[in-house]
Amino acid sequence: MMFSLDVTHRQGAFTLDCRFESAGRLTALFGSSGSGKTTLVNIVAGLIRPDRGRVAVGERVLVDTARRLALPVHRRRIGYVFQDARLFPHMSVAQNLRYGERHIPQAERYARFDHVVDLLGIGHLLARRPEALSGGEKQRVAIGRALLASPRLLLMDEPLAALDEARKEEILPYVERLRDEAAVPILYVSHALAEVSRLATDMVVLAGGAVRAAGPTDAIMQRLDLLPEDEQGEGGAVLDGVVASHDETFELTVIDTGAGALRLPRLDAEPGKRVRIRIRARDVMVATERPRGLSALNVIEGTIRALEPRAGAAVDAFIDCGGHTLVARITRQSERLLDLRPGRPVFAVVKSISFDRGGLATFRAAGEAPSPAPAKDAWIAPPGSMD
């Protein structure tokens, strides 16, 4: 379902002027604090009326100032999950969940109570009150309450920001299941790059109230200049592949990709399983001759496609490897010493140990039943959901 937005709104000294379209399952609004993310989702939710613009989900128009149309909040059919769960303390988990469907006519409900409870793994919590829940459990219940309102769009505004790392790891697999199994598009706000790269099918980068770029996450992740300076090395390439084999002796997994075979720490996936790998720019070295006597196990042949200077000493080298692009962040001195230029054959070198678990994803095959609770160190997605 296509989500489209084109709005302008002035709030004090700050002006929001944004336009983008997305058909992704989970579209992330990414940017630093003050970039306009929350203002944008509040416009979508109907909590702020824009000075000018149009917002639509599929054929359903939520706002069109040219036609003087602005659907009231209760008619937008939007589920909203905030940073804090905002559960009713005097109600049980089951009662909180049921509240979500209370104002939806029976004929318009598509979310089933049992399915939502199973999806979020909260069946054992139904009789508890909110004070007896962990932070991650509260957020899962808040998501369930939003889903049981049978929304046409789900807004999630920094839903993990108030959680510690352990609670984030607890809830992330359920957000992944939500993205892959719930038939509702998600607009997800975050300033955490690792979170966005793990969850988002599409990405909108905001800065100063404007859209700097929008598109599939794998394409945006290569645009290191779009990312905050201290996180630019976290961007890079995303490769699809298939598990070829496991080396039990050295606890490694071999992945066949279009760019070549890669060896990485053992992944809990059967041979033949489709996977997606994120290779960070800061983890890629460049050589003009095939290295010898090197500890790094991954050496991929390629050709320099482009070199883009960045602030300070950095240069981003874009390497074409069999039609797939790897990105290496190197120094200007290395560029000169190696005489790098577009068209020059090179070797991209990646240490196996540099593949962090947050950069690995397995894909569920069509017709395959999802696991009840995806492993906390892997993304789970059906084929095509992140294309």
Automatic annotation (TrEMBL):
The keyword ATP-binding applies. InterPro entries: AAA+_ATPase, ABC_transporter-like_ATP-bd, ABC_transporter-like_CS, Mo/tungstate-bd_C_term_dom, ModC_ABC_ATP-bd, Molybdenum_import_ModC, Mop_domain, P-loop_NTPase. Keywords: ATP-binding, Cell inner membrane, Cell membrane, Membrane, Molybdenum, Nucleotide-binding, Translocase, Transport. NCBIfam families: modC_ABC (TIGR02142). This is Molybdenum ABC transporter ATP-binding protein. The keyword Cell membrane applies. It comes from Nitratireductor arenosus. The lineage of its organism: Bacteria, Pseudomonadati, Pseudomonadota, Alphaproteobacteria, Hyphomicrobiales. Belongs to the ABC transporter superfamily. Residues 2-233 form the ABC transporter domain. GO terms for cellular component: membrane. It comes from the Bacteria. GO terms for molecular function: ABC-type transporter activity; ATP binding; ATP hydrolysis activity; molybdate ion transmembrane transporter activity. Gene3D superfamilies: 2.40.50.100, P-loop containing nucleotide triphosphate hydrolases. The gene is modC. Residues 368-387 are annotated as: Disordered. Residues 293-359 form the Mop domain. Pfam families: ABC_tran, TOBE. PROSITE patterns: ABC_TRANSPORTER_1 (PS00211), ABC_TRANSPORTER_2 (PS50893), MOP (PS51866). Transmembrane segments: none annotated.
